[in-house]
Design a protein that fits this description.
537 residues, 2 domains, nine-stranded mixed sheet, six-stranded parallel sheet, binds pyridoxal-5'-phosphate
């Protein structure tokens, strides 16, 4: 039994709970959704705080010639319950009313969503669109999540033992807690020391530029400072105010999301003083959501694993045909690659040497399915999608781009492909949970040693590594080297094993499932959080 004196209050901008509930954009949200589901399964006393988005994250369609068309439609919330509770936060100089909704589906781990869309409110737009809008809009959203979240928990009479900020978007909650302590008579330093004991923080971004920051002037103009002075804000978040730095300094403990990501995080923030001690809790995925339950048996045999896999492969091929008209071959190797379309993920790496890849595609010995959205404002990401669509035109029978990547498509792909490919530049992938989904369904990872993969990869036994641990500084050099290794592993190991040694392939599938289904489950993850971050065990 866990000792329960209050709840863990988990804060996140997005939640990926179901494909239809479009309040997530990608990995961060799906991780938060899996965290919530695992908290329910493992009976962890947790409440989650998020925003009730009016418009869902972008739906993305692609024309025949590769032009990306963004659509936004209102989110439908079938099971949302009005708590009847209203609170307010101050944005700029204005009092902004917020409604509090509750999603009860997750039992002991309910999700509360804050909503600014109230008739007559001049700030009804704040919760309009996830990751949309200007920087000021973003700060306004972070005020609602952070300050609003703290107030909502108090209005709901939910005692909190630990606040967990999942990524930097929520750190203004820490500022709100300092303000409240100061209003009770503490000075700034005492208030800060006191609230630090109650906060933990998870960082996800291994790229320095990806860590959001705001000028202190903007935070003050928006009212996010809660009356703290310029110097006090700078002490917490630096100048400009970096949300990750603030998270590291407002928390008693912070974590990275894979062992390698911890090393990267430590290097990246080495120069930051007064930060929390950093540990690693590698992400996990929610088994009941992502894994075929038949593969959860103690003893796995080749026939059963193959039967389950072939079923999923057929389902995927049927869906590909339904959506795109393309008929892929059931017997040929099927490689999946679904990632946000952004340069460092290198969706195109496999095409870099036509002399090697083109004949494999022409003969249909290799078939490729791509999917992934670009951020609506990211023109480079959109040009990556266009390049993939042009490849589909060049190889209409063996290359497919599936538009509008979401949880449903993610589940189909990570069950139905033969191989799951991941080749980002290093070390830029924090974790890469789609590889875990694939691995526990017996879809073999072929991946760069980044994110979670170096922790478990046994080359040629439970999947394959692309290259080694060496990372050249120079990115062009890295691309060249990695493309070479990718072709080497494909032509010398993956394809020959698939075509000529089915027994070895099946044995590898079983090993992949056995090595990951427990170790990379969200249950293991939430238990790690309970023990190492929440002090619950
Ligand atoms: C699992 C999942 C992700 C996160 O996986 P990565 O490996 O980090 O890309 C993103 N989007 C969808 C739809 C997913 O199912």
């Amino acid at each position: 039994m866990m000792k329960e004196t209050g709840k863990i209050a988990y804060f996140c901008m997005e939640y990926g709970l179901a494909s239809s509930l479009k309040i997530y954009s990608g990995g961060l949200g799906i991780l938060a959704g899996d965290h919530l589901k695992a908290a329910k399964d493992e009976q962890v006393p947790l409440v989650a705080i998020g925003l009730k988005w009016k418009m869902g994250y972008v739906e993305q369609h692609v024309t025949d010639d590769g032009k990306v068309v963004d659509c936004f439609s209102p989110v439908e919330y079938p099971e949302l319950h009005d708590t009847g509770i209203s609170i307010h936060v101050n944005i700029r100089e204005d009092r902004v009313p917020l409604k509090v909704w509750k999603l009860e589906e997750y039992g002991n781990a309910p999700l509360y969503l804050l909503d600014a869309d109230i008739e007559g409110s001049p700030y009804h737009w704040v919760t309009r669109q996830l990751y949309g809008g200007t920087e000021e809009e973003r700060v306004a959203q972070e005020i609602v999540l952070g300050l609003g979240g703290v107030k909502a928990l108090q209005a709901l009479n939910i005692p909190v033992t630990t606040y967990h900020f999942n990524e930097g978007h929520a750190v203004l909650a820490g500022i709100a807690l300092i303000r409240q302590e100061m209003d009770q008579g503490s000075d700034f330093n005492r208030a800060w020391a006191k609230i630090r004991k109650k906060i933990v923080f998870t960082t996800h971004t291994p790229i320095a530029a990806g860590n959001e920051s705001h000028t202190i002037e903007r935070l003050r103009y928006m009212g996010a400072h809660q009356g703290l002075t310029i110097e006090q804000l700078a002490e917490i978040g630096g100048v400009p105010f970096n949300m990750t730095v603030a998270g590291l300094r407002l928390s008693r403990k912070a974590n990275a999301v894979a062992a390698l990501h911890l090393e990267t995080t430590k290097k990246m923030w080495k120069h930051i003083n007064k930060k929390a001690s950093l540990i690693n809790i590698t992400n996990g995925v929610h088994g009941p959501t992502w894994m075929d339950s038949r593969l959860n048996k103690d003893k796995l045999d080749i026939e059963m694993v193959q039967k389950v896999h072939q079923e999923h492969k057929s389902d995927l091929l049927a869906e590909v045909e339904k959506r795109t008209g393309v008929q892929l071959h059931k017997e040929s190797l099927l490689i999946g690659f679904a990632r946000r379309a952004t340069p460092y993920k290198r969706s195109n790496l496999i095409f870099s040497n036509p002399a090697i890849i083109d004949p494999l595609l022409k003969s249909k010995r290799v078939q490729l399915i791509f999917s992934g959205k670009a951020h609506p404002m990211d023109e480079r990401g959109k040009s990556i999608i266009k390049a993939l669509v042009l490849k589909q035109k060049e190889f209409p029978e063996s290359v497919v781009f599936m538009e509008d990547y979401d949880m449903e498509l993610g589940a189909l792909l990570t069950k139905g492909c033969d191989v799951w490919l991941n080749n980002p530049q290093r070390p830029k992938e924090a974790c890469g949970t789609s590889g875990m989904k694939a691995a526990m369904n017996g879809v073999l990872n072929v991946s760069i040693l980044d994110g979670w993969w170096p922790e478990i990869c046994q080359h040629g036994i439970n999947g394959w590594a692309i290259g080694d641990e060496m990372v050249p500084e120079d990115e062009t050099e890295q691309d060249k080297r990695d493309a070479g290794y990718l072709y080497q592993v494909l032509t010398e190991e993956v394809i020959p094993t698939f075509e000529k040694d089915k027994a070895k392939w099946s044995t590898m599938m079983i090993k992949s499932i056995e090595d990951t289904r427990g170790a990379y489950s969200a249950s293991r993850m939430i238990n790690d959080y309970c023990e190492k971050m929440y002090d619950l065990k």
